[in-house]
Design a protein that fits this description.
Blueprint (H helix, E strand, L loop, with lengths): L1 H45 L6 H15 L1 H4 L21 E3 L5 E4 L8 H36 L9 H27 L7 E7 L4 E4 L4 E10 L3 E6 L2 E2 L9 E6 L2 E6 L8 E9 L2 E12 L17 E2 L4 E2 L1 E5 L5 E4 L4 E10 L8 E6 L2 E2 L6 E5 L3 E6 L8 E9 L2 E12 L13 E6 L5 E7 L11 E8 L5 E3 L9 E5 L6 E10 L2 E2 L9 E2 L3 H9 L26 E8 L3 E7 L10 E8 L6 E2 L10 E5 L6 E10 L2 E2 L9 E2 L14 E6 L2 E5 L9 E10 L6 E2 L9 E4 L7 E10 L2 E2 L9 E2 L11 E8 L4 E6 L11 E10 L2 E2 L3 E2 L9 E4 L7 E10 L2 E2 L9 E2 L12 E6 L6 E6 L11 E8 L8 E2 L9 E4 L7 E9 L4 E4 L3 E5 L10 E4 L5 E6 L9 E5 L2 E2 L6 E6 L2 E6 L8 E7 L6 E6 L1 H15 L5 E9 L5 E7 ...
Parallel strand pairs: 4-11, 15-22, 97-104
Antiparallel strand pairs: 1-2, 3-5, 5-9, 6-7, 6-10, 8-9, 10-11, 12-13, 14-16, 16-20, 17-18, 17-21, 19-20, 21-22, 23-24, 24-27, 25-26, 25-28, 28-29, 28-30, 31-32, 32-35, 33-34, 33-36, 36-37, 36-38, 39-40, 40-43, 41-42, 41-44, 44-45, 44-46, 47-48, 48-52, 49-50, 49-51, 49-53, 53-54, 53-55, 56-57, ...
């Protein structure tokens, strides 16, 4: 009893311990769940945590495993870890139909970023592992307790023990009920669900500077991970806390954007993700800027604002701006501006952005941008017409941005053939799918000598240079669907235009596109940071395996032209997780016959282009979907579609109106085309009046109806016309615009200036003013004067003073009131209108007052009288007036002209006391006068100077500048008419020289020299020299900054002359490894000397060095027998030729020296090798025209006793070997004829030469790469030996064949139909017979017409033989096939006797004759019997029968001798007639016996 009680107590303690462990485990699970929620809340509140739910599940699983070890360690039991997911059999990646033919590919179920998916899958797996372990642990725990409790033992029990055990069983039952409830709660299907938005974020519009908050509420379990994106870019709130704040409170999430500015306008995505799926929502934030007036455009300059980040306001100035530019296709063009940002902040640079037609430019192989810190440069490499447009430089700073724009025109490159069109442009790829893409382009501006007939589209697989033409017949639409692409491959496209003169150059290639599903392409483009766009599902079983797809929906005709029809549809909703393909069927209107279009080539994309439809016919279309499980029902058919062009040509635009703009441009405007679809733009053409040549103004169509035509001839008279263009083609050109002369645009003139009162009397005042600085492009026709009265500080209203414009710049204002103060303003007028008013004059009181203008200038005289110019000088007036003189005006007129002939020599006042008048007429006499000006006005004119004859005196010389050998710069003037007392007088700016330190004057006889002591910018100006006591002999020279720079450069060259080198020092290797250093000078004297140096040490001629200097040719040489390690360094030639010096060096160090040393040693070794028998050409191979492989080499310097040994794989080929007969030597050429090569010929071949002078060896490895190279050459010879494709018709179909010299089984031969690979089938087969390559087409149809290409691999790209099976070739071949087929059918089905009849029948008289013949014919033949060519009729004597259409019999009951004769069984049907002849001989035995007797 004691032992039993102890046993009961132990069991009870164990049971209590298990229950405690179970309670602890539940508490631990609740604590960990709370900890996870709090930690997830904290991480979400700060930012979007990078820790995914997978990491949480992984940590939870590891803790659960540790916690459950105590539950799993049960004696006598083995713990088995259950797999969270059942193992699946590996799937095939090819989809097959019921006939086991491949029809597509299996599309993997799951598509997403690999890293993201792996994290989600691991999280879900580990979560399920944990749940599975918990389930197993609890199941084992309670099952074991139940098993132990119900264990039957044969033993004696006391009543008390029985009571205790009953109580324990009751407690165990309660525990099992608790476990059942726990198990229900542990069911994951009742807890987890995908995220969903209870409240979605809403778009908002805010003012700049305010803050905005986006709010949303998300439900889901496990709690979703929330991420915010701006324009598909993840927002990192931790990295920018000053800008963003992300919060997550329970299920409410928010994104706050602080201090919004213009750049915060964007689309914001919020993404919620857990293991059950992902959802996202979008909201748009628009930030408005408060301002008065019109809203600025995206590229308009914005007012600069204060930058709080740097504490300054940045001001931007753009200078050195690029102008309107012109380039030609193929050239390189650079645009640039200098950008000044003030103030300068250390380590701060503005953002430089370039735009073309308001679209930002990205760096590429065509576009290069550079920012040096001061200058922004844009380089357009290899210009194309796509590069034409309005280019804008935008400079962004923290305070705003500035921009500048100018147009770039790109002219067409010269065409190779006159009259052909220029290249199309703007080739783009649209609607890209797995095996289909739509290529669009824009028509060129110039069609050539005739209208464009159509376009050819070429495609090229990325990474290759092989362009294949996509269409055989040119298409007229600027839009073409290209089919037959290979999924996953990248392609480029180009377009060529065709007219009667030929084909244009190809356009610029399109961007590279990948033939793949759009969803795959979007996923790849989005990258790992893009928001998820679909739900991710995890399933343990593939419930859709083997499901027949549903029917496609929404089948529509998206395009219909004369050339093709394009269908589009939506994939079926039910299609399983594997790839599907589509079959298209067509039906001619009015019939019920549906014909499958693409039986041999199913499509994978939900697009398809149908060609070869009859124009004008109406069709309906439908689509079927197919996978490995079967084919779907057909979709609903489309409405009837008539084959023809749906898009019309655009209507002609309105007549253009041309307006003057600048001296080289005209503004053109017109009304747009009406009711035009898919307008590509407008082309503008111009022509000079009187010519018939029309030139394009733009080579890229513009969509605006206003365009500035640049690059016109100034002053020329132009007319313009416009044409519209869309995908269908060009519109009719408009009528010509009115002719316009290219001149600056006429505008109202500028404001007059300097309005002043020059004289006043009691009741009138005399006004004068200066004309406006800009006349607006037209002559000033007059002026209008306004006046007003002034009382103190109060001014009255303005009143008109003259109603008719005055033509002079002076006016007498009459009928004024004395002692009243007046102000005046003036307006100028031209043909465009009246200008704005000038600034008011100073207020003047109307009363008599003294004239205060300056007096007349005095001392007028002239210098430097020439045929077309003269210099007039004068002295200031004796009195200045009330204010100092601030300028002078020079007037001139011809002597023969009257007072009205005076003209001003200049417009603005001249502040100097001299002026050079140009533009005179030679031989004409002129009179000059000068007027002085001060603030009050212009004074009276001086006394007239003249007449002055505009004529150059004979023998007059000009001042010239000279630089002597010492670099001295001087001005020289010579005079041959020096008189007694004549002197040279030098002046600067026609003023006496006061600073003698700048110039030194040296005079010798009739020659004077002014020497610059130290030339600098202070010496700039006009220098003149006058000879006194002569008739005004003088000359002048103007020294400009550019001229001074040129003279200083020349002076430096003269001071420090340099010996010019024709060729700098270079090096070359000679025979025996010798090294030659040499250079060549352009010229030198016989006194020129050379100094040779190595590493600045002088070297001389000796054993190591050999020098030579040929002074006639200028070649300097130095030779070295070899290069040693100590020869690494710098070699220098130093030349001295009088004052001139020259140095040239060559540096040989490092890898360059070591490489040269190796080459030298190699050359020497080669020379040594060639002293004995050697290989001139090492062992190589060649393939003859008969496709025999030769191993050949060329040997030299051999003797009769020289041994020549061939070996293969180190086994010598002896003279008595069979292979020795394949060796041949002729004229030093050694060859081994392998013949028709096979793999048994592979091996390592070597040739060994040896005699007493030396030895040499050459090896050729005819294995692996060597064997493949030989085979590639063999393939090349075979491919090039192929004949042109011929066609032969048979009774079964057509055979295309080509013969080759030799065929090797490893040669790859492919056949293509319309550039698409031909798949082998029972109807179309290809093969080789002997040396003939053939393609057999059984039962050809119209679909088999077209271009056939035989592609023979030649070791590189392949040799193609093309045969066009269309037109006459098709008709003749098909007609012959039908003839042979009909003949075969006739031969096969014609009536004939197939057997049963003997040739001779001998029968005794009185016997019965019965013969049966077997006949055949389809249809069953008609049967008749003849005897001696006469037809027999069935009667009592002749019984004729024909049974079952096969057996014809004749019976003669009792034959007589009269029945002997020639019989025939004649059969006949529509295919022919045949007779089975036999001879019947009837004999009488008695007669035969008597004859014998």
């Amino acid at each position: 009893m004691a032992e039993k009680s102890v046993e009961v107590r132990v069991k009870k303690r164990k049971q209590q311990h298990r229950v405690q462990l179970h309670q602890q485990h539940q508490e631990h699970q609740e604590q960990r769940q709370q900890h996870y929620e709090s930690s997830f809340y904290r991480s979400s509140k700060s930012s979007v945590s990078k820790q995914s739910f997978a990491s949480y599940s992984a940590s939870q699983t590891s803790e659960s495993l540790e916690c459950l070890k105590s539950f799993l360690k049960t004696k006598g039991e083995e713990v088995v870890r259950l797999s969270p997911l059942p193992k699946r059999a590996q799937r095939a990646y090819l989809a097959m139909d019921t006939d086991k033919e491949i029809i597509g590919y299996v599309v993997p179920l799951f598509r997403a970023n690999h890293e993201v998916v792996r994290g989600l899958v691991e999280g879900r797996e580990e979560g399920r592992v944990e749940e599975g372990i918990q389930y197993v642990a609890m199941r084992n725990l309670f099952t074991r307790e139940a098993r132990e409790a119900m264990e039957i033992k044969v033993e004696k029990k006391s009543h008390s023990r029985h009571v205790r055990e009953s109580a324990e069983r009751v407690e165990l039952g309660k525990t099992l009920e608790e476990w059942s409830e726990f198990r229900k709660k542990m069911n994951p299907d009742s807890l987890t669900h995908s995220p969903e938005f209870i409240v979605k974020p809403r778009g908002q519009t805010v003012w700049e500077g305010n803050s905005v908050k986006l709010l949303c509420t998300v439900a889901g379990w496990p709690k979703p991970r929330i991420a915010w994106y701006k324009n598909n870019v993840l927002i990192d709130a931790k990295a920018h806390p000053e800008k963003y704040t992300v919060e997550s409170n329970y299920n409410m999430h928010s994104l706050e954007i602080k201090n919004c500015d213009f750049y915060d306008t964007a689309r914001y995505h919020v993404s919620a993700l857990n293991i059950k799926g992902e959802v996202s929502s979008v909201a748009t934030i628009v930030v408005k800027r408060f301002q008065e007036g019109d809203e600025a455009g995206p590229l308009d300059p914005k007012p600069h604002g204060y930058s709080a980040e740097h504490g300054v306001t940045f001001n931007t100035t753009i200078i050195d701006k690029f102008e309107v530019a012109f380039g030609r296709e193929g050239e390189t063009l650079s645009l640039g501006c200098t950008v000044i940002v003030y103030p300068t902040v250390k380590k701060y640079q503005p953002e430089i952005i370039w735009y073309r037609d308001s679209v930002p430019l990205k760096p590429s192989k065509w576009v290069h941008t550079h920012w040096s810190g001061e200058r922004a440069t844009l380089t357009l490499v290899h210009l194309n017409k796509e590069d034409e447009g309005l280019y804008t430089l935008r400079v962004n700073t923290k305070s705003g941005f500035d921009s500048y724009s100018a147009y770039v025109f790109v002219r067409d490159a010269e065409v190779d053939v006159e009259g052909v069109p220029v290249a199309p442009l703007d080739v783009r790829c649209q609607d890209v799918n797995k095996d289909y893409v739509v290529v669009t382009w824009k028509q060129p501006a110039v069609e050539g000598s005739s209208a464009i007939l159509g376009y050819f589209i070429d495609r090229c697989e990325a990474g290759t240079l092989h362009w294949a033409q996509c269409n055989d017949i040119p298409v007229k639409y600027a839009r073409y669907p290209v089919t037959g692409l290979v999924e996953g491959r990248s392609y480029q496209f180009r377009v060529r235009a065709l007219n009667k003169a030929g084909v244009s150059r190809p356009s610029r290639v399109s961007e590279t596109v990948v033939a793949m599903d759009p969803s795959d392409r979007a996923r790849l483009r989005a990258g790992p940071l893009a928001p998820w766009t679909g739900m991710i599902k995890f399933t343990e079983e593939d419930s859709t395996a083997g499901v027949v797809p549903g029917e496609p929906t929404d089948v529509v005709v998206t395009e219909a032209t004369k050339s093709y029809v394009v269908l589009a549809w939506k994939p079926p909703a039910q299609r399983g997780h594997e790839g599907v393909v589509y079959y298209i069927e067509k039906c001619i209107s009015g019939t019920d016959s549906w014909q499958r279009v693409n039986t041999g080539m199913p499509v994978k994309s939900p697009r398809f282009a149908l060609f070869d439809l009859a124009e004008g016919n109406s069709y309906s279309f439908r689509v079927r979907c197919c996978n490995s499980a079967g084919t779907s029902e057909a979709s609903q058919p489309t409405a009837e579609t008539t084959v023809g062009d749906k898009m019309d040509l655009p209507s002609a635009p309105g007549v253009p109106v041309a307006i003057r703009n600048t001296s080289t441009s005209v503004v053109l405007s017109w009304s747009g085309s009406k009711d035009v679809k898919h307008l590509a733009g407008y082309y503008i053409e111009c022509s000079v009046v009187g010519t018939e040549e029309w030139l394009p103004c733009n080579n890229k169509p513009v969509k605006q109806t206003r365009f500035v035509c640049h690059g016109l001839i100034p002053g020329a008279n132009y007319v313009f016309r416009v044409k519209a263009v869309n995908a269908a083609g060009y519109s009719q050109v408009t009528a010509n615009s009115e002719a316009v002369v290219v001149l600056d645009a006429v505008a109202v003139p500028g404001k007059p200036s300097g309005v002043r009162v020059v004289e006043a009397v009691k009741d009138y005042m005399v006004l004068t003013w200066d004309p406006p600085a800009h006349n607006g492009g037209a002559d000033i026709r007059g002026y209008f004067i306004d006046y007003r009265t002034v009382k103190g500080s109060a001014a009255g209203q303005w009143h008109e003073m003259n109603h008719q414009a005055v033509t002079t710049n002076t006016f007498k204002a009459e009928n004024l009131k004395e002692n009243i103060v007046y102000q005046f303003q003036v307006r100028a007028m031209n043909m465009a209108g009246v200008s704005k008013a000038s600034l008011p004059s100073a207020a003047r009181e109307c009363m008599e007052w003294t004239i205060t203008v300056p007096g007349v200038p005095v001392g007028l005289h002239v210098l430097e009288v020439r045929d077309t110019s003269v210099v007039v000088l004068w002295e200031p007036p004796l009195f200045d007036g009330r204010s100092p003189v601030n300028g002078y005006y020079l007037d001139l007129k011809e002597v023969s002209a009257g007072e009205e002939g005076w003209v001003a020599a200049h417009e603005k006042a001249n502040k100097k006391l001299y002026m050079k008048v140009t533009g005179l007429s030679s031989g004409v006499s002129y009179v000059f006068r000068v007027r002085a000006q001060n603030l009050t006005g212009v004074g009276k004119a001086s006394a007239n100077l003249g007449p002055i004859l505009a004529q150059t005196r004979p023998g007059t010389k000009e001042i010239y500048v000279d630089v002597d050998d010492d670099g001295i710069i001087s001005m020289i003037f010579e005079c041959s008419e020096m008189n007694e007392g004549s002197e040279f007088v030098w002046s600067k700016n026609y003023e006496a020289l006061t600073d003698t330190s700048r110039l030194t004057i040296v005079t010798e006889g009739g020659k004077t020299r002014a020497i610059f002591n130290s030339p600098s910018l202070d010496d700039l100006g006009t220098y003149s020299c006058m000879v006194t006591n002569t008739e005004g002999i003088s000359s002048s020279y103007t020294l400009t900054e550019e001229g001074l720079k040129r003279l200083l450069d020349l002076s430096h060259e003269h001071k420090f002359p340099v010996i010019p080198f024709k060729n700098e020092m270079s090096m070359e290797l000679l025979e025996k490894g010798r090294v030659r250093f040499w250079c060549q000078v352009e010229k030198c004297t016989s006194a020129c000397d050379v100094e040779y140096a190595f590493n600045d040490a002088i070297i001389t001629q000796g054993k190591k060095y050999t020098m030579n200097f040929d002074k006639t040719s200028g070649i300097i040489e130095m030779y070295m027998d070899s290069l040693e390690v100590t020869d690494e360094g710098t070699f220098t030639f130093k030349l001295v030729d009088g004052k001139a010096k020259g140095t040239t060096s060559l540096v040989l160090i490092g890898d360059e020296f070591r490489e040269l040393q190796k080459k030298s040693e190699f050359e020497r070794a080669e020379w040594v090798r060639k002293q004995g028998p050697h290989f001139v050409e090492y062992l190589g191979f060649a393939v003859t025209s008969a496709c025999d492989v030769l191993l050949k080499c060329k040997i030299g310097n051999i003797k009769p006793e020289t041994e020549i040994i061939w070996s293969k794989d180190s086994i010598e080929i002896a003279e008595d070997d069979e292979e020795a007969a394949q060796i041949e030597m002729k004229d030093g050429n050694l060859s081994f004829n392998i013949g028709k090569i096979s793999k048994k010929d592979a091996g390592i071949y070597d040739v060994f030469l040896r005699d007493e002078r030396g030895k040499d060896k050459s090896v050729f490895n005819l294995t692996d790469a060597g064997y493949q190279a030989v085979m590639n050459e063999l393939f090349r010879v075979i491919a090039n030996s192929s004949t042109e494709i011929q066609i032969t018709s048979t009774e079964h179909g057509l055979i295309l064949h080509s013969n080759v010299t030799y065929y090797n089984e490893d040669l790859r031969v492919g056949w293509l139909h319309k550039d698409a690979k031909i798949a082998a089938s029972e109807r179309v087969k290809s093969g080789v017979t002997g040396e003939q390559l053939w393609l057999q087409i059984n039962e050809p149809t119209e679909k088999d017409k077209g271009k056939y290409t035989m592609d023979i691999f030649d070791g590189k790209d392949g040799v193609k033989r093309v045969f066009d099976l269309s037109g006459k070739a098709w008709e003749e071949a098909f007609e012959e096939f039908q003839r042979l087929k009909a003949a075969a059918i006739a031969e096969r089905n014609r009536a004939r006797v197939v057997g049963g009849l003997p040739d001779v029948v001998a029968i005794q008289e009185g016997k019965s004759l019965n013969l049966t013949g077997n006949v055949w014919g389809e249809p069953a033949p008609e049967v008749s019997w003849t005897k001696n060519d006469k037809e027999l009729v069935s009667d009592d004597r002749y019984k004729l029968k024909f049974e079952h259409g096969k057996f014809a019999s004749i019976t003669i009951a009792a034959v007589t001798t009269t029945d002997s004769g020639k019989y025939a069984l004649v059969v006949k049907n529509k295919y022919g007639t045949e007779a089975g002849e036999f001879t019947v001989s009837v004999y009488n035995p008695e007669e035969e016996e008597s004859k014998k007797d």
